[in-house]
Fold this sequence. Notes:
It contains six helices and nine strands; from the N terminus they run αβαβαβββαβαβββα. It is of the alpha/beta class.
Amino acid sequence: MKLHTVLAAFILGTILVAGPSAADELTNGFIEPPDSVRPWVYWFIMDGNLSREGITADFEAMKDAGLGGMVLMEVNVGIPRGPVEFMSDEWCELFAHAVNEAERLGLAITLNAGPGWTGSGGPWVKAEQSMQHLVASEVEVIGPTQFDDILPRPEPRPPYFGESGLPDWIKEAREAFYVDVAVLAVPHASARIADIDEKALYVREPYTSKPGIKPYLPAPASYDVLPNDAIIPEAGIVDLTDRLQPDGRVTWEVPEGEWTILRFGRRNTGANTRPAPEPGLGFESDKFDPAALEAHFDAFVGRLGGSAAE
């Protein structure tokens, strides 16, 4: 018998011997998958509608269905509010019960970063800890002249999702928050940067679900040569920040020419927890400020962690 025939017979025999065992292992893995590969589900609390009995029934049903765990969050999707106020003592006790029941049943449980689907904030987030953007007001002036006036305070951009359904305290706190950053005077220019709102990250529409939105912003390797009156040289920018008074007044000897005075400031973006239970409505925390994000987690996850440990 030739060598290659012997080897082929040996390999075939090995497959036939090992095949059923490997197939059985694969089949059994589908019937009784290990915990590491069991699917998870979202477990939504619907605006205060929860109870000890309901939690236990839900978790036992998950276990019976072969699930491995859940992501817990409380949302408001328009149904009547339940009797358990979000983050109240009763709510925290029920959260601790959920953690204990998950442990009893061998289910994994994790928590969203805050109330609502997009939550990483809440009513405990102060305006100065909230998400912010840089906005500016403009005043046109022709020199030479003596400028002595109060610059208008920049207005915040409209919130992308509007303010419908938000409590008055959120709207009032958003309007009241303002911090000056800089005042610059620049020679008047005849051109503006295209797509500036998107490039400045003021807004980015969901191009996959909204018609007429650019799928990306163009970044050509070269640009058209612009006329001189469309270009502001860096040396032509005048920093007037140290002239800004607490009431917004600026005094400046304006050189000859057309000038634009820009007052820059920080304002709240209008981002809030959504769709959150009413007691969980509040500002989104500033993700660029480690202290602000830490304060949010201390107020939310810190308290729940203490409840679950008791």
